[in-house]
Amino acid sequence: MIFDRGAVRLHRDRAADGVASVANVLADAAERLLDRLDDTTRRFGAALDIGGRGVVAPMLRARAIDTVSMDFSPAMAARNGGAAVAADEEFLPFAPASFDLVVASLSLHWANDLPGVLIQIRQTLKPDGLFLASLPALGTLAELRASLAAAEAELAGGASPRVSPFADLRDAAGLLQRAGFALPVADAEEISLLYADPLALLRDLRAAGETNAVRLRDRRVPKRAMFAQALADLPQRDGRSVATLRLAMMTGWAPGPDQPLPAKRGSGTVSLVEVLEGEKDKDGLS
Fold first, then answer.
1. Is-above-0.70 flag for pTM?
2. Which structural domain range is residue 126 located in?
């Protein structure tokens, strides 16, 4: 139990009225994720948008995909338009094989049981259905994490967790495979944000509903000087403070009868050693 789920929902409720101010960042991340739809000839009739914050559902509907949206926060769910459900992603309320496509753009990283969530998502997909997700990966907000830890250590003699822990990119495909997805793929995308006013970074995190919900967080009001010092110590680029979003882009398919399968072990007719030796000879290498 790493995260305080009550706090996650409260932060999303509070952010519903102001999330439009960070819609451009959410849209950038969503567009990068949905670009993967252009790599398949499959057509999707019914999609589930998990936690899209009013950004993902319109993008899917613009692709003529009938979309149901879901969010942990009722206020945030209402922003999606069309069919919308307020529900906990750790307890999906949908019948098996309900959707051809499930998209979760920057919305699953506050789940305590992420493997369990992925299993439920796979079960809601029809055979040969597609799952697309982006998760903040290790390296996200590394600048803010480091500067906060240093400032708090100097001013308070110790540091408490103030930025959520993030998964390593190497673990993302493994999580998909563990949940029973076929053809799992995970790759990284980076978005660099530049702030003339570093305080705007904290305002954007609040507007997105992404303030600290770690269960072991220090709930005391921090010293006013701590955030001022931390923000002043953020690295600069072109005279602006830098914040990095490193996203793990995850793709997986629900098992289906028409998917390509790997050849059986031992069925190959050419030795890998022979192929490599042939390449050496062709290139004149010894």
1. yes
2. 5-283
Pair 105, 36: CB distance under 8 Å:
no
What is the predicted pLDDT for the residue at 179? 95
User: 92 phi and psi, to 5 degrees?
Assistant: -65, 135
Q: Cα(78)–Cα(110) distance, rounded to whole angstroms?
A: 20
Is residue 129 helix, strand or coil?
Answer: strand
Please report the pLDDT score of residue 133 as a whole number: 97
Q: Are 70 and 84 in contact (CB under 8 A)?
A: yes
Q: Identify the CATH number of the domain in which residue 106 sits.
A: 3.40.50.150
Q: What is the largest CA-CA distance in the chain?
A: 69
Between CA 76 and CA 54 the distance in angstroms is: 8
* The one-letter amino acid at 173: A
Number of domains the chain is built from: 1
Residue type, 251: T
